[in-house]
Design a protein that fits this description.
By secondary structure, this protein is α/β, with parallel strands linked by helices. 24% of the residues lie in helices and 27% in strands. The chain has seven helices and 17 strands. The strands form four sheets. Strands 1, 2, 3, 4, 5, 6 and 17 form a seven-stranded mixed sheet that branches. Strand 12 and strand 13 form a beta hairpin. Helix 1 packs parallel to helix 2 and helix 1 packs parallel to helix 7. The longest helix has 22 residues. The chain is elongated and about 60 Å long.
C-alpha cells in the first residue's frame, strides 16, 4: 500500500513530489508517456521566478526531480493505464499491474495538438511551439505565424504583436471560429494578417535546423506558396491526459478534470494539479503552485482519514 502516488513529472507533479517527500509521505512518482511534460520541449524558460538569465527547460525539470529525490521521492518510468475506487483505498493500474494507494495526485498534463507534419518533434523549441506566452518574447522584430481559428489562436496572435514585426494568422476556413470580440480584436490589429482557406504543408528550416519558412496550400485553389516566418505558433488546442480516469472522475466536455474544492476531485483522496485540470493559464509557475497545493491537500487528507 502506497501512501501517495503522483502521476506526471512536469512542474505540477514534481512540485507535488517535493512537498509530499518533505512531509515524509514517501511518494511514488510515475514519469508517464511524456517525462518532464511540455517544458522538456522548450529551449529556454525566461519567466520562471528566480532565474535572472532564464533556464533551459529540461534543466529546470532535472533540477526539480533531483530536489524531489533528495527528500525521498521514488520515480518509476511507468504510466497509468487504469484506475478504481475501492472501499477504503484507491487502486491504480501501473502499466499492467495494480497498486493500491491511500491518495492519488494526478498531474499528467495536457498534450498540445500539432499538425502531424514530419519533423515536428525535432522542431519543437526550434521555431515550432504551442505557447505564445512562453516563447513569444524570443521572436522580436521578425515575422511569425499562428495556426488556428478559435479564441486561443486569436488571443495568441494579438499577444504576439507585442514582439513580432508581422503575425500571419493561418486558418483553413474563411472566417475565424473565435468569439466576435476576440476575432475583431485580432483582425483589427495592423500587425495581424489573416491567411484564409489555407493550411501548412511543410516546415522549411535553415542550416541551423531552425524554422525559416512554411509551405502553404490554398484549399480552394490548391495553389502552393511559401511564407517566410521565424516561428510557427500552433493554436489548435490541447488534449488533457485523462484517458485512464474517464467515467470515474468528473471532467468537462473537453476532458479536463474538474476540481470541486481546492485541488480535490469528486473522489476523496484524488487530487488534480496543473494542465490536466487547468486550460486557462497553462504556465510552469501556475502548475507548480497547483502541485504544491495538491500535496498539501493530500497530506491533510491522509492525516484526517488514514491511520
Amino acid at each position: 500500500m502506497e501512501k501517495v502516488i503522483i502521476v506526471g513529472t512536469g512542474c505540477a507533479g514534481l512540485t507535488a513530489a517535493i512537498y509530499a517527500a518533505r512531509a515524509n509521505l514517501n511518494p511514488l512518482v510515475l514519469e508517464g508517456k511524456e517525462p518532464g511534460g511540455q517544458l522538456t520541449t522548450t529551449t529556454m524558460v525566461e519567466n520562471f521566478p528566480g532565474f535572472v538569465d532564464g533556464i533551459d527547460g529540461p534543466q529546470l525539470i532535472m533540477n526539480m526531480k533531483a530536489q524531489a529525490e533528495r527528500f525521498g521521492a521514488r520515480f518509476a518510468y511507468s504510466h497509468v493505464t487504469g484506475f478504481e475506487k475501492k472501499e477504503k483505498h484507491l487502486s491504480v493500474k501501473i502499466d499492467d499491474e495494480w497498486t493500491d494507494t491511500q491518495a492519488l495526485i494526478i498531474a499528467s498534463g495536457a498534450s498540445a495538438r500539432y499538425l502531424g507534419l514530419p519533423d515536428e518533434k525535432k522542431l519543437t523549441g526550434h521555431g515550432l511551439t504551442s505557447c505564445a506566452t512562453c516563447d513569444g518574447a524570443f521572436y522580436r522584430n521578425v515575422p511569425v505565424c499562428v495556426v488556428g481559428g478559435g479564441d486561443s489562436a486569436a488571443e495568441e496572435a494579438t499577444f504576439l504583436t507585442r514582439f513580432a514585426s508581422k503575425v500571419y494568422l493561418i486558418h483553413r476556413r474563411e472566417e475565424l471560429r473565435a468569439s466576435k470580440i476576440m476575432a475583431d480584436r485580432a483582425l483589427a490589429n495592423p500587425k495581424v494578417e489573416p491567411v484564409w482557406n489555407t493550411v501548412i504543408t511543410e516546415y522549411l528550416t535553415d542550416e541551423h535546423g531552425e524554422v525559416r519558412a512554411v509551405k502553404l496550400k490554398n484549399l480552394k485553389t490548391n495553389a502552393g506558396s511559401e511564407l517566410e516566418v521565424k516561428c510557427v505558433f500552433v493554436a489548435i488546442g490541447h488534449t488533457p491526459n485523462t484517458e485512464p480516469f474517464k467515467g470515474k472522475l468528473d471532467m468537462d466536455v473537453d476532458g479536463y478534470l474538474i476540481r470541486h474544492q481546492g485541488t480535490h476531485t469528486n473522489i476523496p483522496g484524488v487530487f488534480a494539479a496543473g494542465d490536466v485540470a487547468d486550460h486557462v493559464y497553462r504556465q510552469a509557475i501556475t502548475a507548480a503552485g497547483q502541485g504544491c497545493a495538491a500535496a498539501l491537500d493530500a497530506e491533510k487528507y491522509l492525516t484526517c482519514h488514514c491511520d
